[in-house]
Design a protein that fits this description.
The chain has 295 residues and is an all-alpha fold. The chain has a single domain, classed as Farnesyl Diphosphate Synthase (Orthogonal Bundle), CATH 1.10.600. The chain is 73% helix and 0% strand. The chain is built from 13 helices and no strands. Helix 2 packs antiparallel against helix 3 and helix 4 runs antiparallel to helix 5. The model has no long low-confidence stretch (mean pLDDT 94).
């Protein structure tokens, strides 16, 4: 696999795809949907995810955090010397410019007036900054237990509500429920990733929420995230009589299997093996919820 593909981390990209599908399906359900806006929103979200992945590899690599990663964790190229820090910095500039260009193009074709354009331009700049500073910089917030809040915001509230607003030019309060559900599932993905890395992160003084909670309480936090997300999607369907959106309930056995496996996990490595399954749960729930809305 080429270094560029490895740095992009293709396995993480379906989560960004599912979030945009969720916001667009809500807009379609409410009668406002434009294919070009959807495609550009999708490309922008994917570019931001790739930017974040590259920044994460670079930031953890130059800090030395990735040198003691578990054997089961994916290889990181900056840490093992496969790519130079100078190359990574150039790549970050290119990806930042690409994300900015895609974002501006998206805003130009969306249902925004000039005030909305400026607001979303600011949100886009915030998203780019957040993607980079998760692990890069002296005040990298991923090292201060703020990762879950960030993914809840960008993979939930801003990702879903923002893509809905770009299609419709408005929003309504019940949209907060699926937006929160999407964000909580994204936080569940990060939580499993951080549970796997508790030992290496603690050694590197990377204070993730999992490090602060400890192994057992981080597992309990995972159950809370899954339960809260399920409630958000259920309540939305009931309040809006959008019963076809409950198609995601077909994935409850998979979510239950994940929860049981995590409960049985006696160590971080066993819990970390659940990362692939929780990514599947998060993407699958959002996509089936979206498909149900479009039926």
């Amino acid at each position: 696999m080429s270094p560029l593909i490895q740095l992009a981390r293709p396995r993480t990209l379906p989560l960004a795809f599912a979030v945009i599908c969720c916001g667009n399906a809500l807009a379609y359900h409410d009668g406002s949907w434009h294919p070009l806006v959807f495609i550009l929103a999708l490309l922008t979200a994917l570019s931001l995810q790739i930017l974040s992945n590259i920044a994460n590899d670079y930031g953890d690599g130059i800090r030395g955090t990735d040198r003691a990663r578990p054997a089961s964790a994916p290889l990181r190229l900056t840490a093992n010397g496969s790519v130079s820090p100078a190359y990574m910095r150039r790549l970050l500039v290119v990806c930042t410019l690409a994300s900015l260009a895609l974002g501006i193009t998206l805003l130009s074709v969306s249902a925004l007036d000039w005030r909305g354009f400026l607001v979303f331009l600011g949100l886009g700049a915030l998203a780019i900054t957040a993607a980079i500073t998760y692990t890069v910089g002296r005040c990298a917030y991923g090292y201060h237990a703020l990762g879950e809040i960030s993914v809840f915001t960008f993979f939930g509230l801003l990702g879903v509500l923002g893509s809905y607003y770009l299609q419709s030019g408005g929003w309504h309060p019940t949209l907060l429920l699926p937006a929160a559900g999407s964000g909580l599932l994204a936080a569940a993905v990060l939580n499993i990733n951080n549970i796997r890395d508790i030992t290496s992160d603690r050694a590197a003084d990377k204070q993730t929420l999992a490090v602060k909670l400890g192994f057992e309480r981080a597992k309990q936090f995972q159950y809370i995230l899954l339960s809260a997300a399920s409630c958000c999607y259920l309540i939305y369907a009931l309040l809006n009589q959008a019963y076809t959106s409950l198609l995601w309930l077909l994935l409850l056995p998979l979510v239950s299997t994940h929860a049981r496996a995590l409960h049985r996990a006696a160590d971080q490595m066993s819990a970390g093996c659940e990362l692939k399954r929780i990514v599947g749960c998060a993407c699958g729930v959002n996509l089936l919820f979206s498909l149900g809305l479009c039926l």
